[in-house]
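2 proteins. here.
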Amino acid sequence: GAWAPDLLRDLGVSLQVERHVQMFFEPTQGIDIFSVGKQPIYIWEADDYVQLYGFPSFGLKAEGAKVAFFRKGTACTPETIDRNIYEDEVNMMRHYLAQGIPQLNGRFLQGKTCMYTNTPDEHFVISLHPEYPQVAIAAGFSGHGFKFASVVGEILADLVMEGKTNHPIDLFTPQRFAANKIV
């Protein structure tokens, strides 16, 4: 997560932590149209190439339906992240909801900040530590890592138990960021 840049710095792993805001709105026509089974997880690209993503509601009216921008956030660290939600952020989301998902542009219920931790190439880091082979490393999953949780868990179990995996993980080596790559 957001602490990985400091933990993996000695390996030359380049990770950027960004502040993102998730927002929850009450749909204008009731929560049911945005509920699980009726509304899929989605990504929408507006005409100006701004991307939004969202998740259905799990039926908690007070929670609403989740929507967030899928774009570069503000650089931060776990110590410096701004946890406030600002009116201009909500208004910008409302602007895009009005264009593409007007049924979701109801009452703003809440916002939550989170930290995305990404690599420059947006690929994960998964490997055994090059100096400490009893340590497995996995980082850089923000924004899309949850979709791969089961296979990443299997890979990490393989690495810890067997010291190797049958899954092709060469793409995820931390050495790809090092100035002097280990061959």
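next one coming up
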Amino acid sequence: MQAKKRILIIGYDSNLCLGVLYCLRKEDYEIFLVTSNRKNAARFSRFVKKIRYYEKQDELLAVIIDTVKASKIDLVMPIDEMEIKFANEHQDQIKAHAALSWTTPADKFSIGINKLLLAEFLTKNQIPCPRFATADTLEALLSAADEIGYPVLVKPARGSFGRSIMKFTAREEIAEFYKDHFDTDFILQRFLVGSDITCNVICRNGDIICHTIQESPVKYGSDFSSNDILEFHEDAQVIDAVGRMMKLLSWNGVACVDIRRDKEDGRIYILEINGRFWASVVVSWLKAGVNFPLIMVRLALGLHVDVPAAKPSRQITMKQYLDSFFSGKNSFRDTKYISYVSDPVARLAQILRY
């Protein structure tokens, strides 16, 4: 009988770890986890065989190699952005002991995950992105905002999950913000009223192997976090822009591309690349039928993969489900929480941040 393949995932975020574990849970794999997050809810997961912690990044390579040797790991698969970047920088040492999931060349990866560098890259290559500016003094910042036009967004050049993005409608607000953030690298960008689009991909040397496209309702305010109301569909405009970008970046592996569709004219603008798995990775499988973690594992191990086409689907909020409970219009399966039932203790720990 052939021994189960052993996969070592490396990641910090609880939701990403639990999502990847769920997507691989029924396959013939044993899953191990290395993380620096002592409160990672995956420590309670039914689907992880063993977890190992590290404290500082300079310990990570030794921990990876030691775990690979001790547990006879077949594949190392980092799933969070900084962990993927680290593995890419140390791929020769890791590949001497186990297979490594695909990674993008370091110089291109660094462009992709930095909002400012990406905006410059997109503008240079005539790929749609919102107007942007940078400034190192308050006067220059105010002048740039005046030129772009209010409202404007101020974003950290590095960041994810919509954290630390601020919307400003007047000069006075920017001046107040600048007092506490004058030493922070940030990008100033025009605010677009429109819907959020996420294009999730696996690429091989810039060519998109598989993808899903999910879109939220139109957003008018200052909530830049992910949305639980999603529609999965195809969009030629999105695939054209993302495909050109990924080809120029020689992207290799997974990515989550955030896009805004302008409510007024329907045009799309690429906002950022998250060079990692994404919060809705389980939904991509359960709703759209594309199991990205499994596809990535099989590709990295050199195994045959039947890549499915994404199917149209939707996800609703828990509130929408409860509001229609007695009418039977919606199903619990239409929410993201259906997968939580399979790993209840870990998901409860995630929700409670225990």
